[in-house]
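U., I forgot to send this yesterday:
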Amino acid sequence: MYSPFQRYTRIRTVAMSVGMVLGMVVTTMNPHVAHAATTASKALLAKKAVPLPEATPEQLLAAERVLTGGYECEFGKRVSIDPQAGNNGYFTLKLGKQAWTMKPVLSNTGAIRLEDIKGTALMIQILTKSMLMDPKRGQRLVDGCVHEVQRKAEADLASRPRKSLLDSQAAD
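Result:
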């Protein structure tokens, strides 16, 4: 016969095998059960959304300077920035299937910083282009993003004659 340890091992192996087979059968016969659980959890997360704090006067001032609409970026990527309905001073930034809630901040240089309220994205808008970064990893998500207003500013700068540093030294 079997020793008590061998008997225990054999029963445990059979029980685990039966459990695995039953799990496979249930997921094969009823796959929407697994999907229902993820849909319910997404609905629960949506209900627990925390309302955004009221925008500060500085934030509202910066929001007036944010370029909303579509941006064409490097490598054929597109970014869009749209004001949030019901949340004055906040914007939704989208890149592909990703979306962030952004808060505008004026910088000392005059650039507009759109900071994700969770700290996972940062968009910087300057006169002629914008870039989207992941500040936690210190990497660019997309660069060379240009809004129509920025495209016109770049064309205007290109049409102006520029003086060389050497020209100014020669005149002295």
